[in-house]
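Example record

The entry below shows one chain as it appears in the dataset: sequence first, then structure tokens.
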Amino acid sequence: MKKDKDNVNISLYFPQGDISEKDLIQIANVMKRYNLSMAKITGGKGITLANLPKNNVAEIKNELGLTNKEKSSNIRTIQACGSLDCRKGVSNAPGFAKILRTKTANLQLPGKVKVAVSGCEHCCMQSMVRDLGFIAKPEGWTVTAGGITGGVKPRVADMLAENLNEEEAVKMAVRILKIYSREANGKERLGNTIDRLGLQRFKKEINLTG
């Protein structure tokens, strides 16, 4: 939630980008009540409502049910494609993303982490440029780490493992994030941590070889 002197911007986060009819009605009611002409869909599949009166924040948050939609303080976002409805999807990306969110919910991380889960090799969620990426293939999950889309030095992620089953992929994600939490300098991104340590050392830390 961002503030200025008299108004605030409230950002809503919807896991995997799933928005219910009830959510949409609540948002529309708030927009109508406070004369908002539009809302912004964020890159993290959330919605931001801008220039809401600061004095009404508590009422607005209650109406929006914001406690259920606020961003995690650890994982910035977990994006997942709609692979169940896609003829090219080979795995349940939304289901995997929900499991991943549950398993990583209590990890304390030094910097923001963006996660993308793609249900096929077409990689619609741009997993190769996220801090943590997962790409479903017929043989299993491919896990990537260290992608950065913005900033002065964008970075393509490193491929860390292939052909993992769901349980193996989730366990690897937890190991990667724990190493990141332990080794990061300040709030540096995961990709910067990998570059500073060196890819081979990072792989060794998460019990990978090669």
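Notes for this example: Strands lie at 2-3, 7-13, 40-41, 46-53, 75-80, 113-118, 132-137, 140-145, 158-164. The radius of gyration is 19 Å.
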